[in-house]
Design brief:
Blueprint lengths: L2 E5 L3 H13 L3 E5 L2 H10 L4 E4 L8 H10 L7 E6 L4 H10 L3 E4 L4 H11 L2
Parallel strand pairs: 1-2, 1-3, 3-4, 4-5
Helix pairs in contact: 2-3
């Protein structure tokens, strides 16, 4: 089974994403900010990361840049999940190493389609 780290400062978003991903047979872990996520990745690298942009301590973009510079940090598939919808933010996320980008609020269909595309 593939693993996914859900990184979001909202416990509601983490809970909803966890339910959908577990139904897709992912092993799910959670982090509430970019620093906690980075620490978890240093300990055990997930196969995929669902990543919020705006978080305290370390933003999603800062986390992604740090992750991609870390040994083995090029492996996880990263899906940015945020309310930031302008082209500049999307371009920054992709340039920093995101594989996909989805907007909040998301639903089961959107999340499933993005995660299925990661492995096709």
């Amino acid at each position: 089974m593939k693993s996914c780290l859900v990184v979001d400062d909202s416990s509601v978003v983490r809970k909803v994403a966890r339910k959908i991903l577990e139904d897709m047979e992912y092993i799910v872990d959670e982090a509430e900010d970019g620093q906690e996520a980075y620490d978890k990745c240093k300990h055990e690298m997930p196969d995929a990361i669902l990543l919020d942009w705006n978080m305290p301590i370390k933003s999603g973009l800062e986390f992604l840049k740090d992750l991609r510079g870390f040994v083995g940090g090029d492996k996880p598939k990263v899906v940015f999940c945020t309310t930031e919808n302008d082209v500049g933010h999307i371009a920054m996320a992709l340039k920093a190493g995101a594989n996909e980008y989805i907007m909040k609020p998301f639903d089961r269909e959107i999340l499933e389609s993005k995660f299925e595309r990661l492995w096709s």
